[in-house]
Each structure stands twice: as structure tokens, then as C-alpha cells.
């Protein structure tokens, strides 16, 4: 097990201080703090070790300052992930599923944006929706229905939001061919074309 001084040096090298002050940079601050925590965990915890984990968590808590320290320092955590999840819970305001759907549906490709960047933008929103679905719906069948629906909405929004009509037509044609290919005759199991 590494010495406390070594653990502290590694934590200080990888994890930025975190104040938790509300503002436009809060989300990126949270992301940098959590990324640093994951790097420390990867560096120091090669195998499960409860004593080392608790020492790392204590050192990570010392990177919290101001209101973040007051909110988090007194809480107990069994893992670095639990600490990170609590910080996310306190500092990242989640949009509800309807707000995310509205955001996806309103996406359109910007004038100077590549189709790939536009797709990436929708994909980020889709991942946020899928995370929210996992949290809000415990039933796996409901999760599957909602996940499939959001994927379908994301694809349709991408195609509809493309500025290049030729590219949009290609995607629509591909989608039609795919649907035709997947249309199976339930009695014979053969595909109908």
C-alpha cells in the first residue's frame, strides 16, 4: 500500500480543487473533478482494497473547498464511484425526459456544422436521455421501450435536420431499405423484399 504522502501527491497532481460554485463553468468543473478522481482510482487501485479506498477518498475530499467541502466532507462513501455520484447528484442539474426529448426534436444542423458534428450533438443528447431513462424507470421492459423510442426519435431528427438534401435523401433511402430487409414473413422466417 502506498504511503499517505504518495497518495496525497498523486491526488493533488490529478484532481483539481472543486468549489461547487454555481455558474457557467460548474458542469466542466464537475467533469474535471470526476475525471481526476477516476485517474487516481486507476493509478492507485489495481485491485479492491477497502483501507486504501478510504484513504484515497479522504484525500479526494481534501480537494473540495468552500460549500463543496461543507456538503460532501461529512458523508461516508464506500467507493470513489460513490463519491463521484454524490457530487454529480448535488451539482449537475438533470433535465427531465420531456425536456431532453424537446431538445432532441428541435435539433437542426447549423450552417457551418458538418453532418458528423451535428450527429455528435444529437448523440450527446441521446446518451443523456438514456442515462435519465435508466434512473427514472426501474422496469427493464419500460426502459427498453423508452430507449428504442429515443433512438428512433434521434435518427429521425438527424435525418430531418440535415441541411444537405442529397445526404438526407440517401439516409432516407437507406432507412427504407433497412425496414424492407427487416420485414420478415413470420411463418417461413424468410425475408421479404
Helix and strand layout, with pairings?
Blueprint: H1 4-14, H2 26-44, H3 50-61, H4 66-72, H5 80-91, H6 97-105, H7 115-136, H8 140-161, H9 165-182
Helix pairs in contact: 1-2, 1-3, 2-3, 2-5, 6-7, 7-8
Indicate the overall shape. Answer: elongated
Structure summary, number of beta strands: 0
End-to-end gap: 64 Å
Question: Strand pairing plus helix content: what structural class?
Answer: mainly alpha
In this structure, how is the largest beta sheet organized?
none
Helicity level, as a percent range? 55-70%
Total helices: the number is 9
Mean pLDDT: 85
Q: Which value, in Å, is the CA radius of gyration?
A: 23 Å
Q: Note poorly predicted spans.
A: none
What order do the SSEs take from the amino end to the carboxyl end, as H and E? HHHHHHHHH
Percent range for β-strand residues: under 5%
List keywords for this structure.
193 residues, 0% strand, 9 helices, mainly alpha
Report what the structure shows.
- It contains 9 helices and no strands.
- With 193 residues, the protein is an all-alpha fold.
- It folds into 2 domains: 4-91, no CATH class; 97-182, no CATH class.
- The mean pLDDT is 85.
